[in-house]
Amino acid sequence: MRLSQFHLRTEKETPADAEIVSHQLMLRAGMVRRLAAGLYTWSPLGLRVLRKVEAVVREEMNRAGAIEMAMPSVQPKELWEETGRWQKFGPQLLKIRDRKEQDYCFTPTAEEAVTDFFRQEFASYRQLPVNLYQVTSKFRDEIRPRFGVMRAREFIMKDAYSFHVGDEDLQREYRNMYDTYTRIFTRLGLKFRAVAADTGAIGGSASHEFHVLADSGEDALAFSETSGYAANVELAEAVAPGARAGATEQLRKVDTPVQKTCEDVAALLGIALQRTVKSVALWGEDGFVLALVRGDHVVNEIKLAKLAGLADYRLATEAEIREHLGAEPGFLGPIGAKRPIRIVADRAVAAMADFVVGANESGFHLAGVNWGRDLPEPDEVADIRNVVAGDPSPDGQGTLALARGIEVGHVFALGRRYSEAMQCTVLDEAGKAVHPAMGCYGIGVSRIVAAAIEQNHDASGIVWPAPMAPWQAVVCVINPKGNAEVAAAAEALYRELLEAGLDTALDDRGLRPGPMFADIELIGIPHRVVVSERGLAAGTFEYRARSAAESESLDREALLSRLLAR
Amino acid sequence: MRLSQFHLRTEKETPADAEIVSHQLMLRAGMVRRLAAGLYTWSPLGLRVLRKVEAVVREEMNRAGAIEMAMPSVQPKELWEETGRWQKFGPQLLKIRDRKEQDYCFTPTAEEAVTDFFRQEFASYRQLPVNLYQVTSKFRDEIRPRFGVMRAREFIMKDAYSFHVGDEDLQREYRNMYDTYTRIFTRLGLKFRAVAADTGAIGGSASHEFHVLADSGEDALAFSETSGYAANVELAEAVAPGARAGATEQLRKVDTPVQKTCEDVAALLGIALQRTVKSVALWGEDGFVLALVRGDHVVNEIKLAKLAGLADYRLATEAEIREHLGAEPGFLGPIGAKRPIRIVADRAVAAMADFVVGANESGFHLAGVNWGRDLPEPDEVADIRNVVAGDPSPDGQGTLALARGIEVGHVFALGRRYSEAMQCTVLDEAGKAVHPAMGCYGIGVSRIVAAAIEQNHDASGIVWPAPMAPWQAVVCVINPKGNAEVAAAAEALYRELLEAGLDTALDDRGLRPGPMFADIELIGIPHRVVVSERGLAAGTFEYRARSAAESESLDREALLSRLLAR
């Protein structure tokens, strides 16, 4: 591509309304333009990157035996009512009413549509297994679309759906997709990690998320450095600690006049934060619940919600707290409640001795607290906290480390939830109508573009992994109109690289070197070659890898061997 | 592709609810499945064909210098209000309200969005010309979606938009796109015709439609067999005939007791239909209008609406007719009106002598009518009829023939309508802000698939033009499980063809020859090769072109030379 015939528009200034680096750089590089809240136009430059990602996704899905198809964006309410998701999906489902007052939605995902296709097209176990996928626009009406294409409302998703007569077959395809995703993200040149994930509202028996690792990632991931264990912190189990130590201190009331947090109390008392206990007041199905976690731990809301009676829990109001504990927030604790309450202790708390809790009295905490002696054993002991770095790995091998990630892929063993709800059956080998087991497998194609930038950038701009770059190499011409020889040499090199199969651009825009190089660095082309009068005289080209600090002077042979890896 | 690993599902019976052959065959071949009214899922087979069309469109658009980008499907009302199209587009515009009660639409076309992109990205004549295109889903909320993907509500369109400082530049790009479309439809192997078209509501200075020729086409096309003239009948000019002949008959009233049509009157009187005149009663801006066309001609509504005061004309009601002509429909004419009326005569009628019209009296016509003598000259003489076969070509070369077509492409020289409405300017060479001239260029990608079938089918199914076929060739194996040698030979041939670059399928489904061949014919694969035990023994393959009546026995060399054209 000759850049004089392309459309590039870069900006030096960081846009004021872009909060994260990928959004800033995508706007500065002119990859996307905002059309409305959460709606982005992909410029020619942005689309080149998007298409590279799509191509890798398609190649690997095809290689894995999945078959591409395409379902409409607009789907009828009736289908979504068959599974109850017309209501359950909530306001993220963009609803549409047509001229005949019929209801539709702009599809955020296509379990219903693909199951409808399947039940019309497939009848027998002989036609299975099958894995059908599409790469299409999806829509989620996010309440607060932000971060550019990272959390846009309209986005490109690859979604695949597999159908199986038996669970074993589903497990085999699940593994196949897991391996396929691993190949996709490896081929894209991304540092990523697959982690076990919560199956959440979609349900099903197994689920893994694929995360691009980046410090700015919204998700926290836990993994063992000595084994393959990896899980989203939402899910990662905090294993039970050793047995509780014996009491060595007496219960005592301590003055904490303004100390309302565990940190402040520990500092005042001169003790480790790990000796304090945080009391979190909740309201569940059966009323007031006090959840206890160690002062240095954080409550895990997803784990809490899995406990009996807490599926739809909320934080208790101050009135509820005063009624049950007779105290103000900041001084709460499990001892001396005014009314019966349920006490749920994290495993770590249940194993503590001589600990500190709020006294249920303003300005006071209790220290030297011990289970059994100073208060009854907790009503329930459970894993209700996030793991922290250094926790033992749940698989018993090594300790956990933490990383942050951006979710770009998700594989689910769905089971029969959709096929049962939609009365979708096939005949098995015995001639019996059975509901097929399903898997679903998503990749956030447009999000990958942003995630790759979060992971790969520097002060000058984007540093694309080569497989995602808009072009692999660019040949820059200094003063093309002023020197025909230079222009011809650049043209010849450009053509030679193209013919050798290298996706190459020719920067023949005639910019001065400063702005030209700044553009090329900003848009992140992996290899830059400069053809200049001086170099031509010396028989050399100036070569610089985007990731390198310096440029090198290479003769023709060395240059070609570098670029074409031959 | 091994068909055992693919998903094919064909049907023998013609679906009852499919009215046209392409819809019937697409359903029977399992290319699409209806999800809801006007919404179709593309099966893996259908998608293969769609992708082939898309690929040709993209290649030729890129070759022509257009640059691909992608705009969101969901677009904000504010943009559409800038051009007034939020209202003007009418109920075909699918409107959407999001969770924040903001209004959007599912884009049927993207003049507004691309102009918005352009005005943010382009500032100077130096960046022009530019032609931006996308291949995306569009939506038109058709009141009566029908004919499958031929007139679906959600469909795939390639839409391109070019921007120019000067009109000459626009004309150059218009021509470039015209030539590109010609290449696209030629490469797709379709019989097509480009015709001058009415610029209609979109406005602009020039417009051509590209039609796939098919007897079932909704549009009538007129073209000269001896020159390049071609136009939609909506637009094609019926040239003025020679001078009017002199009167030879006397005016006389004739009994036509039940003869209300020109055909019946001509039959009764024993004269040529061309001697009769049809009177069409209309109601325009200034009241009653009588439009006169020759008995064998048809009024052209688009031409009529271009006359002064008739932009929004309608047919007159019977009450209006009785009030102005004092007669019932069937016996109307221009002589003896009860109230002042405007008479618009088609050019052919104005040149007639001794003609027959209704007498404005039930049961009677007037014969031997002559202008000037029996009634005043018409208030207006204009071209208000459809051309018919045999009319002189408007370019003066030869006579017109008619054909029917399916519109699959449209190029428009839009001018400055959108850039002015949206206050989009660039600086010209003199540093002055000017509104760029625009062109827009659409191709109905998904409709091409149906149109190709309308044009290319036989009693056994689809006969794809090779460039659109899901596969170029299929290797059929008879009894693959029963004979390892046959299976191995088929496999070897399949691999050899693939490696030679021929998009080949292997039919290893193990069907009996009858159903297997019926499938292959129905889905229209251009080349079929059968590997059988008997053939293998004789050293031959059974080859049949989809378009051929018979199969041939070819040895390996002859087969390869036929398939690979070497």
> What is the C-level CATH assignment of the largest domain in chain A?
Alpha Beta
Give the distance, in angstroms, between the N- and C-terminal Cα atoms of chain A. 23 Å
Largest sheet of chain A: 9 strands, mixed
Radius of gyration of CA atoms of chain A, rounded to a whole number: 29 Å
Weakly predicted, low-confidence segments of chain A:
none
Domain Aminoacyl-transfer RNA synthetases class-II family profile (chains A, B): 33-465
Keywords (chains A, B): Aminoacyl-tRNA synthetase, ATP-binding, Cytoplasm, Ligase, Nucleotide-binding, Protein biosynthesis
Enzyme class (chains A, B): ligase
Organism (chains A, B): Luteimonas composti
Structure, described:
The structure is a homodimer of 566-residue chains. Chain A is of the alpha+beta class and 566 residues long. Chain A folds into 3 domains: 17-71 and 108-237 and 402-454, BirA Bifunctional Protein, domain 2 (2-Layer Sandwich), CATH 3.30.930; 252-382, YbaK/aminoacyl-tRNA synthetase-associated domain (YbaK protein); 471-564, Rossmann fold (3-Layer(aba) Sandwich). Helix content of chain A is 27%, strand content 29%. The first copy, chain A, contains 16 helices and 31 strands. In chain A, strands 3, 7, 8, 9, 10, 11, 12, 21 and 24 form a 9-stranded mixed sheet that branches. Chain A is globular, with a radius of gyration of 29 Å. Chain A starts with 20 loop residues before the first helix and ends with a helix.
